[in-house]
Amino acid sequence: MPRIRTNKKSAPEGFAKIEPTLREFELQLREVEQSKSSKLSSRANEELWQILRICHERSRYVYTLFYKRHAISKQLYEWLLREKYADKLLIAKWKKQGYEKLCCMRCIQTSESAHGNSCICRVPRAQLELEAQKAGKAVGFQQCVHCGCRGCASTD
Amino acid sequence: MGRLWTTFTAPSGEKYYYNLRTKESTWKRPESFYEDGGNKRPKLTREPEPFYAIPLVNDWFLVIDDIGGKYYFDSSTEEASWTLEDPESAELLSTIDKNKIILLVAIARGYNTNVGDRVYQEVIDDLKALRKGSAVEEEGEQEGEQESESIPSESEEEEKRPSGLIAGYSSSEEEENEIDSDVEKLNNLGDDDLPKENHEDESQIRNDFFQLLQRHQCDPYSTWSIQARKIQEDPLFYRITDDSIRESMFEEWCEKAINRTTNPQDLVDEDNLDDDSREEEEEDELEPLPFHYLAHIVSKANITPSTIFQDIKDQNKADFKKYKIKQFVKSKSQQETFVSKLLFYYKKFTLDERKEIFHDLLESHSRSIKKNLEQESESMRSTLSEEAGSNDAYAIETKLLKMENLIGLARDMEELANDPKYYVLGIKDKMIELMHYLTSYI
């Protein structure tokens, strides 16, 4: 069991406006937690995918609030990151060229993959289709095994 | 065409039928419940209604109805016909831009654009101009007839259209071909004109969409996936077919709605946000002992000689929840045994005596503590030298947990970690005592 935080700082101004949305996300996460998982081993990861998707969406939400809509103050943004409402490492990647739509950190960690390359969801769809066409097959890729991403190249 | 008869059940259980109009009741089942006899459901098909009427010459009109059919109407005799029996009108019709007529047919059939009225007006204006022109021509020389001969196919086509479209594509091969080409044109028209029209419509659609968002009181501080649920019932929502475009429009609207003075905000370096946050992460790895929080609650509790576990639990219900005691110590009986033992020390001994008990306990485990310390002496020294503010409860706890971590309490000293004597002091006192004890070794 991790330690319980007793030194939580109260939220900076402006939190009330975004609270309902954050609560909605939390509700969605709860729903996934309480849903019954499939007994098939091939679908064992799908719940995790759901969770990663919602977390991604929430991070994206915080990211757009601060960088795109300029709707929240810097203090509130930093507070949100510290309270882990958003994945700060993922957001740091989104600011870099070529990673604007990155799905999760694991998909670019080459050291964690079997052949030392990044996940197939990082390959642009157009390239996949081209290669499949050359091989005379349909594109086989549907969802990546890490987070269930269907493709997160910046050109997609 | 309404329902005439209704069914009721008599008190005897038998069914009887009641006529709503004549107010008669009967035991006999009527032949039909509906006014018009046979059909149970009203007809779904309806008569097409005129959508556009384009005036030609000699009181003739070209009428386009709302399913895209085309026929001609003579307003002097009030007769409609599939063919245009007025040669002058036919000639006039053959000279105007056919694509515009096709566009009008498409609009009448439901092609979504808002240039419709403009095109209609254009066609009427064109016809007016042509009428004047032909009047002049007729005065001079009869060129009009030749002209109409030079493009006979078009006028023929015009005449054949209605029969084709209405009669569900008639059998003649010639006609079919022509109709096919027309249908093709209709389809192409959609493709060709869309981009251009999109440019014209974009601002219109955008405005509509913004109004839609406004009308449904969408929250500019929320996210698209949630707000989209509010407005997706509205037909306007489907004016834009691509969800990514909808989303970008929503973002735009949000930005406007929030209407911040857009002074460029400085970037935040997420990788190393504050020193705090990194420290916090380190602290996250510190794991308190299973009985840590339970002991903390007891040390804060108001203890009288008659206090038992249940009293502690009742008084500190909120704390039990806050510190997730259930998840640290799962079984309730285990919680109870531990607290009861601890209460014994709190009831019988004063603070100083308890400090001594604590000290003795550490002394009895001194060998394993020393052994673990040898590996970690450096980091222990730095931990001990750290200042913990005397009022910052969280910092004090952090220091205690660090020390416990370094002497390996959770790893290989389970006996000590589960001994109630180890918990006879509150967090602050325990931290101070443990620090004094450890400094004597280093």
TrEMBL record, chain A:
<dbReference type="InterPro" id="IPR018230">
    <property type="entry name" value="BUD31/G10-rel_CS"/>
</dbReference>
<dbReference type="Pfam" id="PF01125">
    <property type="entry name" value="BUD31"/>
</dbReference>
<dbReference type="GO" id="GO:0000398">
    <property type="term" value="P:mRNA splicing, via spliceosome"/>
</dbReference>
<dbReference type="GO" id="GO:0005686">
    <property type="term" value="C:U2 snRNP"/>
</dbReference>
<dbReference type="InterPro" id="IPR001748">
    <property type="entry name" value="BUD31"/>
</dbReference>
<dbReference type="GO" id="GO:0005681">
    <property type="term" value="C:spliceosomal complex"/>
</dbReference>
<comment type="similarity">
    <text>Belongs to the BUD31 (G10) family.</text>
</comment>
<protein>
    <recommendedName>
        <fullName>G10 protein</fullName>
    </recommendedName>
</protein>
<dbReference type="GO" id="GO:0000974">
    <property type="term" value="C:Prp19 complex"/>
</dbReference>
<keyword id="KW-0539">Nucleus</keyword>
From TrEMBL, chain B:
<dbReference type="Pfam" id="PF01846">
    <property type="entry name" value="FF"/>
</dbReference>
<feature type="region of interest" description="Disordered">
    <location>
        <begin position="134"/>
        <end position="200"/>
    </location>
</feature>
<feature type="compositionally biased region" description="Acidic residues">
    <location>
        <begin position="267"/>
        <end position="286"/>
    </location>
</feature>
<dbReference type="Pfam" id="PF00397">
    <property type="entry name" value="WW"/>
</dbReference>
<dbReference type="GO" id="GO:0003723">
    <property type="term" value="F:RNA binding"/>
</dbReference>
<feature type="domain" description="WW">
    <location>
        <begin position="1"/>
        <end position="32"/>
    </location>
</feature>
<dbReference type="InterPro" id="IPR036517">
    <property type="entry name" value="FF_domain_sf"/>
</dbReference>
<feature type="domain" description="WW">
    <location>
        <begin position="54"/>
        <end position="87"/>
    </location>
</feature>
<feature type="region of interest" description="Disordered">
    <location>
        <begin position="264"/>
        <end position="286"/>
    </location>
</feature>
<protein>
    <recommendedName>
        <fullName>WW domain-containing protein</fullName>
    </recommendedName>
</protein>
<dbReference type="InterPro" id="IPR001202">
    <property type="entry name" value="WW_dom"/>
</dbReference>
<feature type="compositionally biased region" description="Acidic residues">
    <location>
        <begin position="172"/>
        <end position="181"/>
    </location>
</feature>
<feature type="domain" description="FF">
    <location>
        <begin position="201"/>
        <end position="256"/>
    </location>
</feature>
<feature type="compositionally biased region" description="Acidic residues">
    <location>
        <begin position="136"/>
        <end position="148"/>
    </location>
</feature>
<dbReference type="InterPro" id="IPR002713">
    <property type="entry name" value="FF_domain"/>
</dbReference>
<dbReference type="GO" id="GO:0045292">
    <property type="term" value="P:mRNA cis splicing, via spliceosome"/>
</dbReference>
<dbReference type="GO" id="GO:0005685">
    <property type="term" value="C:U1 snRNP"/>
</dbReference>
<dbReference type="InterPro" id="IPR036020">
    <property type="entry name" value="WW_dom_sf"/>
</dbReference>
<dbReference type="GO" id="GO:0071004">
    <property type="term" value="C:U2-type prespliceosome"/>
</dbReference>
<dbReference type="InterPro" id="IPR039726">
    <property type="entry name" value="Prp40-like"/>
</dbReference>
